Amino acid sequence: MLKQTVFSVATLLLLAGCNGSKEEVVEPISETKEPTVEEVEEIKEESAFTYPLTGLKVDEAATNRPIAVTVNNHPKARPQSGLHKADIVYEMLAEGDVTRLVAVYQSTYPQLVGPVRSSRTYFIDIAKGFDSIYIAHGYSPDAKAVLSSGEIDHLNGMQYDGTLFHRASDRQAPHNSYITFENILKGADKLGFETVAVPTPLTFSEEGTEGQNQQSFSVSYYNNSDFTSQYQFDSTTSSYSRYNKGTQLIDKESQEPITLSNIFVIETDHEVVDSVGRRDIDLTSGGSGYLFQNGFKLDVKWKNENGILIPYGEKGPLPFIPGQTWVHIVPSLSSVQMD
């Protein structure tokens, strides 16, 4: 805050009269100097905080506890609700060649999110890395055991279908379960979950790290066109748009496009563990990957640091560009095609 200059003026007035002179004291005058535009901008620049998971500037510290939601990615569930507000979205195989999403929210909570789908153990691992409140509707047997153990604060549609969760009338189950963030916070309050907890900040840089020029590319899962995403970099906005079969990813309610600053692709071991095709995915051992930012492709390594997947270069961790990030977890980097 700019310093205020306060000054006082005392004036002695001598009044002549037959009975003598009289002294009058004028009260101090307070004057406030208005800041210039340049000073205001400098103050904002110096005092700005940043969101821990996007690196974007904010006027005051963001103390929301992260909330991680398993979001349906089946074609019948698109377009989804609330993905445009997610700080980070993780895309992983559920069973067969079908992917599912884990959307992590901290900087902004959308009004509505969904459709919500069932949990897997590695979805829970992603959520635990940020100390999130975890939201899902259903679970695999292994995921149910983890949730029942109390390892993570969670709300599940199996217990709250029709109360905290609601079914949309324009879609059929299992593609129609939604939850509002008002209901998430209501459920968290009822169960005594902490809602103020700042996650460990990621590392960000406005410049990022320069690599090989790559303006467009695609990521597929077993070459299934329903789960193949195309990305196009826009130099005017310094962000990527995401498409599937020529259709841009947008928010269902607002029609707002999802724009991304970083696409991080990691290769890791996948193992089918049951007759349904459910998997175990290794999120701890590290390995190779790609990081796309600012229209460049970087060949990177990835490591799991306290439950969070981090890109590494030869000299250490690599920064993300401030903004939203999409993380693809794939069985092989051959899933990535350079256009």
TrEMBL record:
UniProt KW Cell wall biogenesis/degradation keyword: no
Among Pfam families, the record links this protein to:
DUF3048, DUF3048_C
The DUF3048 domain is annotated at 53-193, 219-327
**Keywords of the record:** Lipoprotein
Which SUPFAM superfamilies does the protein's record reference?
YerB-like
PROSITE patterns membership: PROKAR_LIPOPROTEIN (PS51257)
What protein is this chain from?
Answer: Lipoprotein YerB
Q: Which organism is it from?
A: Bacillus coahuilensis p1.1.43
